[in-house]
Amino acid sequence: MKAYNDTSINMNKFLHRIKLFWKMLALLINPTVFLCLHYKNFLDQLILIGPNSLFITMITSFFVSLVLSLQIVKEFLYLNATDLVGSILAISFIRELSPVLTSIIIIGRVGSFFTAEIATMTITEQIDALLILGINPINYLFLPRVLAMVLTLPILNVFSLFTSFISSSFICSIIYSIDTSFFFNLYYIVFFFVDIFKSTLKILIFGLFISTISYVWGITTTGGSKGVGLATTSAVVMSLIVVFILNFILSYLLFSDLVSSFEIL
Is residue 174 domain-resident? Predict the structure, then answer.
């Protein structure tokens, strides 16, 4: 009976969080809400997401790209199709690897921190104290985090792409003796800037959902210190699931039209 009640409570909380999640997204449709942005908090979040996450993003991209290049180039050498190596790697990095990998890193490093911080504030009644002082938690906590995430993730994505190209060029030159200029002489260059734009759009949407989930899961935390841990874990899991689902949907919507373009060429 107790297990049944716990399941019912958890389901009600989950539904409440989903409902609040869509309300927060709907709030962002009106751009005038950012006029009440707390700018000092916004700058703090920019530093947390940007410079403080840059090193781990580049290190992760470097070694993941090394492994991917190591596996892909070897197979293409067997097929005597080295001319396609640059296209395949660049398309993989731009369209999928870089935005998804960067988002996963941010979920683990920043999203979990957002949820734990706001959940602790909720448990210790700091949110109520803000309301008593006349400070709107949405302007003080939610908007700075969302805007900082949306503005910073595309920049991290660019650094991740740059690191991926460097590591791939390195592995191709050192191990397989392939000229590194293959990245700069590609037939797909017509679509290069289009792909960059669409990759940026993907990671913007990822950042919007990650920051909103982190805030909603934090603000709805109950149950003391145990509740903080459960909310943080749940927010990370939910963010990962949402990113993977969105990645499939956006990849289909944004890049499926280029398949027909390649067939025409």
Answer: yes
List Cα–Cα distances, 195 to 90, 93, 138, 200, 244, in angstroms: 10, 10, 34, 8, 19
Round to whole Å and give the CA distance between 199 and 203: 6
Q: Flag whether 29 is in a domain.
A: no
Q: What pLDDT score does 187 carry?
A: 45
Please return the burial class of 87, using the count of CB atoms within 10 Å of its CB with bins 0-12, 13-18 and 19+: middle
Cβ atoms 145, 114 nearer than 8 A = yes
Q: Is residue 196 part of a domain?
A: yes
Comparing CA positions, the residue from 156, 180, 207, 155 lying closest to residue 69 is 180
Type of residue at 243: V
Domain count along the chain = 1
Distance of CA 41 to the CA centre of its chain: 21
CA distance 183 to 127: 51
**CA-angle at 190, arms to 167 and 100, nearest 5°:** 45
To which H or E segment does residue 67 belong? helix 51-78
Provide block-wise average pLDDT over 10 residues at a time, the chain (265 residues).
55 88 89 83 90 92 88 76 74 88 94 94 90 88 93 94 86 75 57 83 95 94 88 95 95 70 42
Tell how many helices (H) and how many strands (E) occur in the chain: 11, 0
- Positive or negative CA dihedral for 100, 257, 261, 207? negative
Residues 162-198 have pLDDT tens digits of: 898 888 888 877 877 777 666 655 545 556 778 888 8
Task: Give the helix/strand (H/E) hosting 145.
Answer: helix 143-174
Report yes or no on whether pTM surpasses 0.85.
yes
Residue 223 lies in a domain: yes
The structure tokens listed for 107 are 């979920």
In contact, 57 and 153? CB cutoff 8 Å: no
Instruction: Give me the domain span that covers residue 189.
Output: 52-256
